[in-house]
Design a protein that fits this description.
Length: about 220
């Protein structure tokens, strides 16, 4: 199997997850973003086929945590109206500058229920020589974008209706039972969904510190 290098982009955590404002304060949302990012990285980097992770961020706490977890950190480039895709494009270019032609994975950074086995399965079934994607639990977003062709650019189109945008750009949809990978967190309903699946230890301890009651026994997700 060809190895893959992953890229994540994370904005300032004190500006994140505004749709959770009905549940959490600004400070709590920042702590939750950091915890979910940590659990996502822990799961992703447990996948043997993933050779490296590059995190593009302007946030010092995210950058410090990423380095602690063994990721390469790149400062967020100046961007106009599309900072997320600009950051992912810069991260992908940096990966290939450092490692040469290689396969690339763009992964959402808020997947606290992600299992390493899910991502490993995706890397196994994704067709070589093509761009593919995992659609998120809403059916309209993209949880992961994978380029299994060292000659192709990543060309991320994350944002509103990104599944259609990636499909229009030639990405094929990957089918599989990967609930943790498909469930990013933006709304209170999303938070309930990942807690039902079982989130990682950092997200679990953070939510418990906020006084959240048990949800389906508040299961703690194991990395595998």
């Amino acid at each position: 199997m060809h190895t893959v290098h992953a890229v994540m982009a994370v904005k300032h955590i004190d500006r994140a997850k505004s749709r959770l404002a009905s549940l959490l304060s600004t400070e709590q949302r920042a702590r939750l973003v950091l915890a979910m990012f940590t659990d996502t990285v822990v799961a992703a980097t447990a996948v043997p086929a993933l050779s490296s992770l590059t995190v593009v961020t302007p946030d010092p706490l995210i950058a410090a945590r990423a380095r602690e977890l063994g990721a390469h950190v790149l400062d967020e480039p100046a961007a106009g109206a599309d900072p997320l895709n600009t950051a992912l494009t810069a991260g992908a270019a940096d990966v290939r500058d450092r490692h040469g032609p290689t396969h690339l994975l763009a992964l959402q950074a808020d997947l606290p229920a992600l299992r390493a086995s899910e991502l490993a399965d995706v890397l196994t079934v994704a067709p070589v020589g093509a761009r593919s994607m995992v659609i998120d639990h809403t059916g309209t977003g993209t949880a992961a974008l994978l380029v299994r062709d060292a000659a192709q650019l990543l060309e991320p189109r994350f944002g509103a209706d990104s599944a259609r945008a990636h499909r229009d750009a030639g990405a094929v949809e990957l089918a599989g039972h990967w609930p943790g990978l498909r469930c990013d967190v933006d709304t209170p309903e999303d938070l309930d969904a990942v807690r039902a699946l079982g989130v990682g230890e950092f997200t679990t301890s953070t939510l418990r510190a906020f006084g959240f009651s048990s949800h389906r026994s508040d299961p703690v997700r194991t990395v595998c």
